[in-house]
């Protein structure tokens, strides 16, 4: 017996194939060849190439000609951010950030990638801590923030390059932050090695943040969680290291728990 769902899909084959391609790309670790997509989905290669051409034109897919591979584009990430804005991440993340702030006594926030920016979905301010610019709904350049750097460090190189093709893609804040793809890669390589990202005074002088990535069921970066704390210039690197050692275990535990909740694990 043919299900109602299968019957509808058979009547709109192009739409069904397009969505299957997007779903397949979302589960991959990085861009893949069109032939691999066709084989995996049992679709004619000509159909896959035609659909990929349209998806590239609409920015849902990015084509890396040097590698002859295709990956998710900016429009796909914006759909993901749209999903995030419609409450699920906010509802799942708010109670966890509440507990994190109570435990650490420092302010915390949850953000998602939105193009080359991070969009803040949750902010939990600790008592007697200064107000932050990372209020709900605020967007900031991802390379300047701890949560943004954590998210970007988890992207495949080709996806990262598509976001930052030239110097024009970078926004600075009072002269602070990376000015080129090369400078950004140095920051992200450090974040990959450490398992967390750091921002010190690049958003607000006197405040520093450490951020970690929240991964979905396929290992893709779904969100970033960061904790912000005061730090004065005379305290320098010693204070920063002390705070990282004190805050990181609980921060990482919260990110892992949110990752489990995103894909329904208990």
First-to-last CA distance = 35 Å
What is the share of helical residues? 40-55%
Question: CATH architecture of the largest domain, please?
Answer: 2-Layer Sandwich
> Total number of β-strand segments?
8
Q: What number of structural domains do the residues give?
A: 2
What strand line-up does the widest sheet have? 5-4-3-8-7-6
Fraction in beta strands = 15-25%
The string of secondary-structure elements, in order, is HHHHEEHHEEEHHHEEEH
Structural class, from helix and strand content? alpha+beta
How many helices in DSSP terms? 10
Condensed summary:
The chain has 266 residues and is an alpha+beta fold.
Describe the structure.
- The chain has 266 residues and is α+β, with helices and mostly antiparallel strands.
- It folds into two domains: 4-72, Orthogonal Bundle (Arc Repressor Mutant, subunit A), CATH 1.10.10; 78-262, Beta-Lactamase (2-Layer Sandwich), CATH 3.30.450.
- It is 48% helix and 19% strand.
- The protein has helices at 4-11, 13-26, 34-41, 45-57, 74-85, 88-104, 146-153, 157-163, 181-194, 236-262, and strands spanning 61-64, 69-72, 107-114, 117-124, 139-141, 197-200, 207-215, 221-230.
- The chain has a six-stranded antiparallel beta sheet with strand order 5-4-3-8-7-6, sandwiched between helices. A two-stranded antiparallel sheet has the order 1-2.
- β3 and β4 form a beta hairpin.
- It comes from Alpinimonas psychrophila.
- InterPro entries: ArsR-like_HTH, GAF-like_dom_sf, HTH_MetabolicPath_Reg, Tscrpt_reg_IclR_C, Tscrpt_reg_IclR_N, WH-like_DNA-bd_sf, WH_DNA-bd_sf.
């Amino acid at each position: 017996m043919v299900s109602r769902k299968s019957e509808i899909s058979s009547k709109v084959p192009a739409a069904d194939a397009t969505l299957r391609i997007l779903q397949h790309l979302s589960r991959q670790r990085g861009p893949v060849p069109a032939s691999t997509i066709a084989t995996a989905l049992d679709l004619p290669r000509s159909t896959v190439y035609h659909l990929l051409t349209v998806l590239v034109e609409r920015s849902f897919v990015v084509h890396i000609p040097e590698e002859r591979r295709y990956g998710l584009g900016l429009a796909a990430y914006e759909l993901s951010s749209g999903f995030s804005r419609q409450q699920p991440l906010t509802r799942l993340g708010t109670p966890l950030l509440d507990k994190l702030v109570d435990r650490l006594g420092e302010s915390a926030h949850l953000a998602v990638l939105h193009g080359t920016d991070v969009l803040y979905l949750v902010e939990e301010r600790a008592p007697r801590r200064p107000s932050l610019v990372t209020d709900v709904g605020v967007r900031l350049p991802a390379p300047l923030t701890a949560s943004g750097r954590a998210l970007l460090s988890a992207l495949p190189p080709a996806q990262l390059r598509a976001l930052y093709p030239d110097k024009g893609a970078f926004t600075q804040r009072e002269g602070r932050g990376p000015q080129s793809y090369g400078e950004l890669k140095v920051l992200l390589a450090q974040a990959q090695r450490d398992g967390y990202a750091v921002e010190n005074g690049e958003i607000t002088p006197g405040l520093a943040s450490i951020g970690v990535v929240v991964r979905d069921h396929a290992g893709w970066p779904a969100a970033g969680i960061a904790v912000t704390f005061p730090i004065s210039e005379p305290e320098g690197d010693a204070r920063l290291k002390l705070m990282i050692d004190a805050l990181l275990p609980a921060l990482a535990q919260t990110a892992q728990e949110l990752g489990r909740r995103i894909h329904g694990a208990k």
